[in-house]
């Protein structure tokens, strides 16, 4: 810790002196300054200015000298701490140490001078309440930590003390007077309440909105400037959960009250203090039972919460927090949605509101995802399989309505192993197939898994439907060809994977394949829906001649009609051949 010596200094030769001390050698009778930095940080008196003897050249020099004068002459303190010149901000190690210790610095100070440079001496009180000092993140701990705080105008006239102005301060900050007066320790307030105190505040560097709360929650963590506001606030909450089981940390509502806030998946932890702006009255029940502490993992936040499933498939997760609007009875709750393909992974939804329940559900250990990447990850599972789900035929010719799958050529993976078959999502055997419906997939990009021969009994016309991997590990490819079934090697040579959903043309068929992915018990199953648009064979010459004969032969019956029809057809054929 560095401390600035308050003098005495010779007028006109004020070369400031500073000392660096540690641990038990730190004096117990020092004062401390709370202020807002200049818009241009270089205007402040920095440590290097003190060491180089150039402090007097800085615009903020008079602010420092007035604070020194107040500490030495008015209050008799030999030492003064000011953040601008008592921290070497060029050293990341020292800066991190100072930020982690700053709450203690203010708490141990005998007196804190809060200098409000935007409040004039002759004001009606509105300037005091509207000072920018109340909107800054760092000044929250500078208000709460010291036992004695004195407020000064821009000309260093005393406005009053924290205890004397507690009613006005409480109205401005929504911090109860008991906390301001020290009757209740700050740590007595719930996590949600302390977060709500920080909700309207701002910092110049976005990460500082989390870092400035370390002392208020009695935690420590490394400073990682560049990580961003959200990540810094995530780390802060993770550190808080290591020392507290207060579930009011989960009692927040999305600051953006838009439709997307209700539909977007989110984690259990908030993105910023602003999310607690309307939940500061939340407290936590004292007893959590035998629940394991919440901890962040690669799968998300691992915690235990009582769950109740709703008719729409979502869940209400009960928090160990009473409902303030119900006389602090019952339970607050949040809305969760189970993630696709998982039995115990969830996301918070409907983040713009909290629920309440009278009776909690059954406690369940679960994971709540905190991060949802804006890119698509590859959903690869140990086993991918095709399951032929449906076959639908469209045609204007009733005789072509029936098709059957009569033959299958499949990869060496073949049908699923007898001892570990993928579980079909629909188990009944289909009447339109002579082959198995499930085939384990070769996930190699471009690899053919199975070639199915579909045939219609009316005229024995058929086509080959091929199913396999697409161009990537997590895509599928389909193809349809008019050819006879051959070996898998032969089929692989002609297999051109196409994305499902488009019509494919063969000689007498138009084929479309739709694929839907489902995950069950750690296995991915692609449900395959086949649509066939059946076309008739083109007419032969004799069939055309027969149709012409039908038009010219008189409407007689029996063998006479057939003989006449044959004669006309023969004449037309001989005439056509000339």
From TrEMBL:
Report domain DUF8212 positions: 231-262
Q: Where is the Heterokaryon incompatibility domain?
A: 30-122
Q: What Pfam family is a match for this entry?
A: DUF8212
Write down the InterPro entries for this protein, in alphabetical order: DUF8212, HET
Q: What is this protein called?
A: Vegetative incompatibility protein HET-E-1
- Organism, per UniProt? Teratosphaeria destructans
- Upper taxonomic classification of the species? Eukaryota, Fungi, Dikarya, Ascomycota, Pezizomycotina
């Amino acid at each position: 810790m560095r401390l600035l010596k308050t003098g005495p200094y010779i007028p006109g030769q004020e070369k400031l002196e500073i000392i660096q001390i540690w641990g038990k050698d730190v004096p117990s009778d020092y004062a401390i300054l709370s202020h807002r930095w200049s818009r241009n940080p270089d205007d402040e008196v920095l440590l290097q200015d003190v060491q180089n003897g150039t402090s007097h050249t800085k615009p903020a020099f008079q602010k420092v000298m007035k604070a020194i004068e107040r500490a030495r002459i008015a209050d008799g303190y030999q030492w003064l701490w000011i953040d601008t010149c008592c921290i070497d901000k060029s050293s990341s190690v020292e800066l991190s140490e100072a930020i982690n210790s700053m709450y203690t610095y203010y708490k141990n100070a005998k007196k804190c001078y809060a200098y409000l440079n935007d409040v004039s001496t002759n004001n009606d009180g509105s300037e005091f309440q509207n000072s920018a000092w109340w909107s800054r993140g760092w000044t929250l701990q500078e208000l709460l930590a010291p036992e004695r705080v004195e407020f000064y105008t821009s000309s260093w006239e005393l406005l009053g003390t924290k205890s004397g102005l507690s009613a006005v301060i409480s109205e401005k900050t929504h911090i109860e007077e008991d906390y301001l007066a020290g009757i209740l320790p700050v740590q007595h307030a719930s996590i949600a309440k302390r977060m709500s105190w920080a909700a309207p505040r701002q910092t110049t560097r976005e990460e500082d909105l989390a870092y400035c709360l370390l002392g208020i929650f009695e935690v420590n963590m490394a400073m990682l400037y560049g990580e961003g506001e959200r990540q810094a606030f995530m780390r802060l909450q993770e550190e808080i959960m290591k020392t507290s089981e207060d579930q009011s940390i989960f009692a927040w509502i999305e600051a953006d009250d838009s439709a997307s806030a209700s539909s977007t998946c989110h984690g259990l932890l908030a993105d910023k203090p602003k999310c607690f702006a309307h939940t500061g009255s939340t407290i936590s029940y004292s007893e959590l039972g035998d629940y394991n502490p919440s901890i962040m993992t690669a799968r998300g936040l691992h915690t235990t919460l009582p769950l109740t499933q709703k008719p729409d498939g979502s869940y209400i997760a009960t928090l160990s927090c009473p409902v303030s609007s119900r006389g602090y009875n019952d339970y607050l709750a949040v809305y969760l949605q189970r993630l696709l393909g998982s039995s115990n992974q969830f996301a918070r939804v409907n983040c713009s509101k909290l629920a309440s329940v009278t009776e909690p559900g059954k406690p369940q250990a679960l994971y709540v995802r905190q991060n949802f990447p804006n890119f698509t990850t590859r959903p690869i599972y140990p086993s991918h399989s095709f399951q032929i789900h449906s076959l639908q035929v469209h045609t204007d010719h009733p005789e072509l309505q029936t098709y059957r799958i009569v033959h299958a050529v499949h990869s060496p993976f073949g049908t699923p192993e007898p001892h570990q078959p993928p579980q079909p999502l629909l188990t009944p055997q289909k009447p339109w197939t002579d082959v198995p419906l499930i085939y384990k997939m070769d996930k190699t990009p471009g690899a053919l898994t199975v070639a199915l021969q579909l045939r219609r009994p009316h005229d024995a016309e058929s086509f080959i439907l091929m199913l396999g991997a697409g161009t990537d590990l997590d895509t599928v490819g389909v193809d349809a060809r008019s050819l006879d079934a051959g070996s898998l090697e032969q089929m692989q040579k002609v297999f051109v994977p196409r994305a499902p959903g488009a019509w494919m043309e063969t000689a007498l068929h138009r084929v479309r394949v739709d694929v839907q992915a489902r995950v069950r018990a750690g296995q991915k199953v692609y449900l395959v829906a086949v649509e066939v648009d059946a076309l008739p064979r083109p007419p032969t010459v004799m069939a055309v001649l027969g149709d012409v004969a039908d038009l010219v032969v008189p409407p007689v019956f029996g063998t006479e009609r057939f003989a006449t029809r044959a004669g006309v057809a023969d004449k037309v054929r001989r005439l056509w051949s000339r």
